[in-house]
Design a protein that fits this description.
The chain is mainly beta and 651 residues long. 9% of the residues lie in helices and 44% in strands. The strands form 10 sheets. Strands 6, 7, 8, 9, 10, 11, 12, 13, 14, 18 and 19 form an 11-stranded mixed β-sheet that branches. It has a 6-stranded mixed β-sheet with strand order 42-41-44-45-39-46, with no helix packed on it. Strands 36, 37, 38, 40 and 43 form a 5-stranded mixed β-sheet that branches.
């Protein structure tokens, strides 16, 4: 305890020293800086080589950057409402944010993965997850839109997240163990009674659709990160655990008591077979499954009931624990699938396990006790090697596909390159400051594109012009094509760039949609020509079937609306040209604008509160006469008998 506390304080001290800033700020000058500038310079009109997708952390969104330029291309709203795009505000996408707790307007997006086929990035979808209200999501990379969100029941702080190498499964692991199923109980009785479920979500290979296959009810540890096996180790999932102490208070001390926590090795193929043979228990659960329909572009939220749970201690061969020093954080599998890197965040060394040794130890039953009925593998038997004195506070590792690994060190603020063949450190470069994850395009697959590395830093301090008490987090781009890493660029990011994934632009840019075809628009309230635009009243509900085209709305004058009505503007953008969205805003509406893509339809609910004549207008500068793109709605008293009428140019 005392020894541990002194180790902890040393680390804390080191951390404080780092955050107070060193004077070596990595600023480059002279010939080198000119050279670095050239390597990130993408001339006006030219395109970047990679798409980089960055988690927005507590922004709940995902942002898209071009690499190497660091230019921001787009923000894709996922778990948080986004007033810019109307996501989570318009009637079509509100259901995307529905949960068993009702409408949740915000989420905490942590990790993401691009879908894979045979262990290589295929560029079809991005899968991601949320740490607060446990959910996973799918983003379609033809439209760059969130198309599906699935709530994970019976879980908390869904945090470890990964996809298998053919995108068969997503794994969503709990960060906070909780009673399973949830119930009212004393927190002090946590130990042995709380659980840490790992949820396996099956992905449909054609549609990408997600459904919960089974939930593995693990002991009440915290699960931080997970990565899948690949090649020979395909069929396994590796997940770090900390708090194997099962502490429930003063976690910074109490969950750091054990010299070793674990990496759990989960053989999902064995569990899959067990389930296929009728194994498992159904548990009551109530969770939302939200899907954006491909043809109508309208989301529906369905409440699902019940999940299949399995108790891994009853399934021989399903789960083994590899002792991993000092509260492991990252757990990364190299492109060959042989090396599993465990980063004990309080450890002085990096632990690398060998998959083939693990299999041998399992066959020889080389066990060292058990955890709740599941075997602990002998540490020395599964150890591949150790990287000695690599740095302080190791977190995450990625790979370049050339036999090298790159690990981030939070406390010593650096990226360290080391060799998988002899565990020797090759190079180290500072980060500014306190790096969390790093990302190499494809660095979490069988086929990395080992040209760049991006470090995602938790603390920015003096890297940019000050912007009040908070600075945007910083990403840093390194060239890793040579023996030594070279820092090329800093760029600010949105929210917390918790993790990222990048892919050669050539894999997805040709598939990126330019428009939605109007003749394929199956939205139930779409109107496809001005002649069909109209206003219909059903009691207090008024439906306005409206179109937009450069540079007017049809209709643009509406009368006969009354105070207390629910006015639904169903607005269709008739344009069939790339990059010509129109916007729609209504004075006094308690919601965001609509931003309607060419060929699409979106709906705003407006509840007029006062009599008068109220303007509506286009928010997105669409033509030289954008400013003229507007209309009026006359609102009369609730008991008025002004007839419902609508017109464009008096017709
Ligand atoms: Cu990605 Cu622990 Cu959230 Cu590391 S995990 S920074
Ligand atoms: Cu349409 Cu501006």
């Amino acid at each position: 305890m005392n020894k541990l506390n002194s180790i902890l304080s040393t680390f804390l001290l080191a951390m404080i020293m780092v955050s107070c800033g060193s004077d070596q700020t990595g600023k480059q000058s002279g010939a080198l800086s000119g050279n670095a500038a050239e390597r990130v310079y993408v001339a006006p009109g030219d395109h970047d080589e990679f798409y980089g997708f960055f988690s927005g952390g507590f922004s709940g969104q995902l942002s898209v950057y071009g690499l190497p330029s660091g230019r921001m291309l787009k923000v894709i709203p996922v778990f948080s409402q986004d007033a810019e795009k109307g996501y989570g505000y318009n009637e079509e996408t509100k259901p995307m944010l529905n949960t068993s707790y009702g409408f949740v307007p915000w989420g905490d997006l942590h990790h993401l993965d691009i879908s894979q086929t045979n262990g290589e990035l295929d560029g079809r979808w991005i899968f991601t997850h949320e740490n607060n209200t446990p959910r996973v999501a799918r983003i379609d990379l033809t439209t760059f839109e969130t198309v599906e969100i699935l709530e994970i029941p019976n879980s908390a702080g869904n945090h470890s997240f990964a996809i298998t190498e053919n995108t068969e499964y997503l794994i969503a692991g709990t960060r906070f163990s909780v009673p399973s199923p949830q119930k009212d109980m004393s927190i002090e009785e946590m130990k042995g009674n709380f659980k840490g479920p790992l949820t396996f979500v099956k992905v449909d290979q054609e549609s990408g659709g997600m459904e919960i296959a089974f939930q593995v009810i693990m002991p009440g540890f915290s699960f931080d990160l997970a990565h899948p096996g690949r090649n020979a180790s395909h069929g396994w999932m590796f997940a770090t655990t900390y708090n194997s102490e099962e502490a429930n208070t003063l976690m910074e001390v109490n969950s750091s008591q054990n010299d070793k926590d674990f990496i759990a090795a989960i053989n999902w193929k064995v569990i899959e077979e067990y389930v296929a043979n009728g194994g498992g228990t159904r548990m009551t659960a109530n969770y939302a499954h939200n899907v954006l329909d491909h043809d109508t572009h309208v989301a529906t939220s369905t409440m699902k009931q019940g999940i299949l749970t399995v108790n891994p201690s009853e399934i021989p061969g399903a789960v083994f624990f590899m002792p991993t020093p000092k509260s492991p954080h990252g757990c990364d599998v190299d492109p060959t699938g042989e090396y599993i890197v465990g980063s004990g965040k309080l450890a002085a060394e990096l632990t690398v396990f060998s998959y083939s040794k693990m299999i041998k130890a399992i066959e020889e039953k080389n066990f060292d006790g058990e955890v709740y009925g599941m075997p602990i593998l002998n540490y020395d038997a599964v150890l591949g090697g150790v990287v000695r004195e690599p740095g302080l506070g190791p977190l995450h590792t990625e790979f370049d596909g050339k036999g090298n690994a790159y690990t981030t060190f939070f406390i010593s603020s650096e990226v360290v390159k080391w060799s998988l063949s002899d565990y020797q450190v090759i190079d180290r470069k500072p980060t500014y400051y306190s790096v969390g994850h790093l990302m190499i395009p494809g660095g979490n697959s069988r086929k990395p594109f080992g040209k760049y590395l991006v470090a995602m830093n938790k603390i920015t301090k003096d890297r940019y012009l000050p912007t009040g008490p908070e600075m945007n987090h910083s990403a840093q781009l390194y060239d890793i094509s040579g023996d030594k890493m070279e820092l090329l660029l800093d760029f600010p990011t949105i929210g917390e760039p918790h993790y990222a994934a990048a892919i050669p632009a050539s894999i997805i840019k040709e598939n990126s949609k330019k428009i939605f075809r109007l003749d394929e628009n199956a939205h139930p309230h779409a109107v496809k020509r001005e002649a069909d635009t109209r206003v219909e009243r059903k009691g207090n509900d008024v439906h306005v079937y409206m179109t937009m085209v450069r540079s007017h709305f049809s209709p643009d004058n509406i009368e006969g609306i009354k105070v207390g009505d629910n006015v639904y503007f169903h607005v269709t953008n008739l344009e069939q040209d790339f990059d010509v969205p129109h916007g729609f805003a209504m004075l006094g509406a308690n919601t965001a604008e609509l931003l309607v893509m060419p060929g699409g339809t979106k709906t705003m609910l407006w509840q007029p509160k006062r009599e008068g004549v109220w303007p509506l207008y286009c928010t997105d500068f669409c033509s030289a006469l954008h400013q003229e793109m507007q209309g009026y709605v006359r609102v009369s008293p609730a008991n008025s008998n002004v007839a419902l009428s609508w017109s464009l140019d008096g017709d």
